[in-house]
Amino acid sequence: MAGKSSGDNRTRTSVSIFIIAGLCCFFYLLGAWQRSGFGKGDSIALAVTKTAGENCDILPNLNFETRHAGEAGGTDESEEVEELKPCDPQYTDYTPCQDQKRAMTFPRENMNYRERHCPPQEEKLHCLIPAPKGYVTPFPWPKSRDYVPYANAPYKSLTVEKAIQNWVQYEGNVFRFPGGGTQFPQGADKYIDQLASVVPIENGTVRTALDTGCGVASWGAYLWKRNVIAMSFAPRDSHEAQVQFALERGVPAVIGVLGTIKMPYPSKAFDMAHCSRCLIPWGAADGILMMEVDRVLRPGGYWVLSGPPINWKTNYKAWERPKEDLEEEQRKIEEAANLLCWEKISEKGETAIWQKRKDADSCRSAQENSAATVCKAADPDNVWYKKMDTCITPDKGNGEDESLKPFPERLYAVPPRIANGVVSGVSVEKYQEDNKKWKKHVSAYKKINKLLDTGRYRNIMDMNAGLGGFAAALHSPKFWVMNVMPTIAEKNTLGVIYERGLIGIYHDWCEAFSTYPRTYDLIHASGLFSLYKDKCEFEDILLEMDRILRPEGAVILRDNVDVLIKVKKIVGGMRWNFKLMDHEDGPLVPEKILVAVKQYWTLGDNNSTSTQ
């Protein structure tokens, strides 16, 4: 009996210790969460976590460390978290792979110096990019299309250089964007009306557009209400902050240039491509740049060219250029267009429109004495850091486009690349299952963060986009999603994403993204850190996320528990309020969710000391 009593006492003691330890951990974590954070971001963080608490049936509150610390293998909560310091004020608008000082060390020929040139590992910053003093949340769309707070991008040069062209005007503490451009000083709406008389913009046939040399992206801004989404790009050059202005306005844009490297987009991605006084030498080098546009243009797609040299006979005096130069420039463009089997369908004023023939491959083969060289590359979508070639990409071999539906039907129709078995391992059934899965995930996200559907987040990024299921499930006229296809992904499905009427870009997350700081309102990543495990440092990826995320912006990470525990430790030193929670199917699923809100802080805050 004495032995049995002693055993019972030991059992009760063990249970008591376990319960007390559990309660201590719970109240410690609760107190730490309530004390975390400072500044203007706290109200959003509290709202997000309060919402999660109100939906305990979907995402129960976690005592996460107690349940999974053993599984993680090496995460010790007693370890000190490294606090990441703010960077020096000179880095407020730092773009690592388009740094002006580094750019000037590269050749200027063919715009090589304006292409991506990223710092080596030893030169990467390990600090938090500060927001400028006075930074505020951008206006909600559609007001943001027309107004940008001056403090967010304090650069007035374009208001002087482009004053008569109605690009941008400075009014008090805001910039106003009247919608003008070099080729459309009367406004983008009237210009788009002119294009729509030739190009089927209104019926969903044209959904994705590429704007080369976009300026402040007014063309893309005004296409939005016509249900057309434009991917705009321009270099970081003497026209300081033009892409930054575009993103502050809530318009998709990246820093980029047509130089020597292929564009980071898949073949047959765009329904329309556009150049409005973009100063790109289209006829040079045997039309190599037009060949690159042809690669990303769908059969039946449109190319719009406004400005020199179109209609040079009438305009050469106004352009102050020799008519002989303009005549030769247009001759080369017409010659390249003919070689590509583009048919000119309109020329009015200073604007010409070509249409790429749907049977371009057979057209080229039928041309007598054709100088066309067909590209021999096996995969026309393998473009990351690949040099352009003076050759024409065949349209066949990447799915046929005849079955492409008009938008919005296109969003959930089976994409041609999948219907024709081009994407290995992705059947029609798997595609449909993926859509169901992401509808379920996004439904759970909306219960965690009720701001998701309000328009509070305009610029959204999916860092590991897969088949585009997240963006499709989230689709709304209130926001857009930049679908990023990691270059190391097992399956290259960015072409599928474009066939759904969405936009995206190739990128390697071991490097910085081609954008300015503070340009995204919400960042989502599913499986990203598992993908990059042992490829590059998690801290570098998280610092890049912090660079491109706005103050008070939100983050949703979905990954395996062991990976997220490592991520969580780094995030603890990053001025993010965060919470780790179970999968929507319950605590037994090894995949977990980390939600976070970046705190509000700016240059000069008392709590910051800068470092390089």
UniProtKB/TrEMBL annotation:
Nucleus is among the record's keywords: no
Record's keyword terms, sorted: Glycoprotein, Golgi apparatus, Membrane, Methyltransferase, Signal-anchor, Transferase, Transmembrane, Transmembrane helix
InterPro entries on file: Put_SAM_MeTrfase, SAM-dependent_MTases_sf
Enzyme class: transferase
GO BP, one annotated term: methylation
UniProt-listed Pfam families: Methyltransf_29 (PF03141)
EC id: 2.1.1.-
Membrane topology: Single-pass type II membrane protein; Single-pass membrane protein
GO cellular component: endosome; Golgi membrane; trans-Golgi network
Annotated compartments: Endomembrane system; Golgi apparatus membrane; Membrane
GO MF annotation: an example: methyltransferase activity
Membrane-spanning ranges: 12-33
Gene3D superfamilies: Vaccinia Virus protein VP39 (3.40.50.150)
Predominant subcellular localization, coarse grouping: membrane
PANTHER family on file: METHYLTRANSFERASE PMT2-RELATED, SAM-DEPENDENT METHYLTRANSFERASE
Family assignment from sequence similarity: Belongs to the methyltransferase superfamily.
Name assigned to this protein: Methyltransferase
